[in-house]
Amino acid sequence: MYLGVDYYPEHWPVEMMDEDMRRMREMGCNIIRIGEFAWQLMEPKEGQFDFSFFDQVIAKAKTHELKVMFGTPTATFPAWLAKTHPSILAQEMNGEVRVFGGRRQYCYNSRVYQQYTEKIVSKLVKHYANEPAIIAWQMDNEIGHEGSDQCYCEQCHLSFQDYLRDVYAEDIDRLNEAYGTIFWGQTYTDFAQIPMPTHTVTTHNPALRLDWARFRSDSINAFAKMQIDLIKRHRGAHQQVTHNLFGGFFNRAYDQNVMAAELDFVSYDNYPVWGGLKEPLKPAEIAMTLDYIRGLKQQNFWIVEQLMGAQGHNHIGYLPRPKQAQLWAYQAMARGCDNMLFFRWRGMDRGAEQFCLGIVDIDNETGRKYREVQEFMHDVAQQPSLTTPIHADVAILYDYDNIQSWAIQQQSDAFDFTQEFMRLYAPFHSANVMTDVLSTDKDFSKYKVIVLPVMQIMDEALAHRLRSFVASGGVLLMGYRAAIKNRHNNLHRFMPTPAFIHDLLGGRVRESESLGNGISAPVVAKGGYPRAVATVWRDMIEPSEGAQVLYHYDDKFYKEYACVTVNAYEMGFVYWVGAGLDEITMSDVVGRVLEKAGIADKAIMDRLERIERSEFSEQGDGQNSVVWYLNHTSHPQTVQFCTIAPYSVLKRQLSDES
Ligand code: GLA
Ligand code: ZN
Fold first, then answer.
1. Cβ contacts of 182-191, under 8 Å, gap ≥ 24
2. For residue 311, which atom of ligand 1 is closest to its CA?
3. Residue whose CA is closest, atom 9 of ligand 1?
4. How far, in Å, are 262, 438, 548 from residue 523 at the CA level?
5. Rounded to two decimals, what is the model's pTM?
6. What pLDDT, in 10s, does the model give residues 42-60?
C-alpha cells in the first residue's frame, strides 16, 4: 500500500527538503508525487532541457526511502511557448482567447501544442525510465477540468468538420438526414458550412450539439492517448501510467471511460468540499463518486489528491471539522481506494493556490492535520480489508450521450443530472447496499439489480440487453423520461414511448409534464396512503395489462395515470418510476426492489455508513469478513453496542455482528 503526499519542492528553499521528507516519513509516507506543473523548470528555454533540480529531489527521496510518482507537466506550459505560439491558446465561445496565467489554457487540437508536448514528455520519461524510485507517471493534471473541456478556436472548428466527415463517411446527405436539417432550412451541401454551436438566435440543432459534445470528448481523449502512448513507449518496465481524474465528472463534455481504458490504473482527486461550498457533499454523493471511479476500470483505484485542508482559489467555504477529512479518507479506502496521497504537503504562500491548504500550514508546524494523517496512515497500512476487491449486487448505469443530451436540453429548469442520478443512487446508499456505478457499455448481466436514472437515449442494442437481463431474472429500476430519444439526440418516432421497451416496462407514456422550479404534483400510493410528491418531471404512465400500479397521480385530469409501476417480465421484474419522487417514496420503492432481488437492507441511520469488506482477496464474491462503520455526524453514535465518536470509524468482525 502506497501512502503519501503531493509535494512541490520547487516552491521552497532546497534546504527544507531533508526536514520535509523526514517529517513525511515520520507521518507514515512511502511515496511523493512531484513535477506536475514544472515544465518551465525542465525547459527554461525552448529546446534546453534541464532535469537537474528533480534529479536532486529524487536522490533525496531515495535517501528517505520515498518512492516517486512523477507528473508530466503539460497542464502548465512555459510563458515562452505562449509568446512564440499564441495559437496554442484555447478560446471561449465568444472568441475570447484564454491568456497565459492560469493553467490548462491550451487547445487539445493544437498541432503546435501536441508537438511541444511530445518533446517535453519524451525527454522527461526517457530521462527517468531507469530510475527505480519512480514507480508511476501521472499524465497531465485533471485534463478537461475547470472549463478546459471546451474550446471554440478555428483549429477546433476545422477539426470538428473533419470529425463529422469521418463520422458520416463524407456523405453530407447522411448528416442532413440524421440532423433533420430540413427543419428551419438548414440543409448543408458541404461539411465546411457546418458551424460550431456558438451563440445563435434561439438555439442550435440538438443532433449537432450532441456531435459537438462527442467531438469535445474525443479531442481530450485523443490528446491524452497521444501522451499516454508516449509514456508507455519510453517508460521503464517497472513504471505504470495513470491520470488524476476530477469530480463533477457529469458536468463536463468528457467521457472519462475512454481514457481510463488506456491507463494502468485510475487515480482520483477526492475533494468532498471545494471553493465556496457552505457544506460538504453529502456522504452519499461522495460515495457515488468513489463507486464511479471504481467503475471506470471495474477495479480498485488510487487517490492522488485526498483533501485535508480547506480549499479554494478565490473563495473558501466550509472548514472540515476535526477528524472529518480523516473520515473522508477512510470512506475512500472503504469504497475501493488502495493507495492514497494527500493534497498537499504544505500550503503555498504565493501564487493562485494560497488558500488551497495542505497538511502543514504556512507556519510550517506539525499540527492537527498532520496528526490526523499520521494516525490514518499508521492504521490503514495494517488493514488488509482495505485493498481487496469489492463486490456489488447493484449497478447504477449512466451513458455519456445521455448525459450530454440532458446538458443540451434540460426540459425542466429544475433538472440537474447529478441530482437526478443521486435520486436513484441515494436510497441504495442509505440501505448500506454496495453499488457499482457503470457506463452502459460495461457488462451488467451478472448483477441482481440495475438502475437507469433518466435514461432518455435508448437504442435497440441497449434495449435488447435490458430485456435479456430482466428475462433471466434481473430486477430493473427505471427512472423517468425513459427511452424517448435515439443516438442522434432526436425523438424516436412512429412507435410507443418508451421506445423498444414499453412491453418490458409494462406501460406507455401518454403525456408528460415539466415540473419547473417550485412546481410539484401530488402522488399517492395505490389504496390512498401514503402520499408522495413529484418534482422536476412527470410521465403519465398508462399501465399495460398485468402491470401493478404502486403509486398514481392525485390531481385533477391525471388520477388515472400511474406514477410508479412494477411489471413481471419472464423471470424478472421492472420497477418504473415515472417522476422525480421525494426521498421517502424513493426509499419505499428501493426497499421493494431490494426485497424482490433478495438483497438485505442494512440501513442504520442517516449519515452512518456501513461497508462490508473481505479481508482475504481469495474470498468469493460478496464473502465479506469485516464491517466498517463511518460516523459522518458531529455526534457520537452507537452501533452494535459500540460508540463511534464524531467523524470517526469503527471496524468489527462480521462474525461478531448480532
Ligand atoms: C485540483 C488540482 C490540484 C489543485 C487542487 C486544489 O484537484 O489537481 O492541482 O489545484 O485542485 O484544491
Ligand atoms: Zn481549440
1. 191/161, 191/164, 191/165
2. 12
3. 141
4. 47, 31, 16
5. 0.98
6. 999 999 999 999 999 999 9
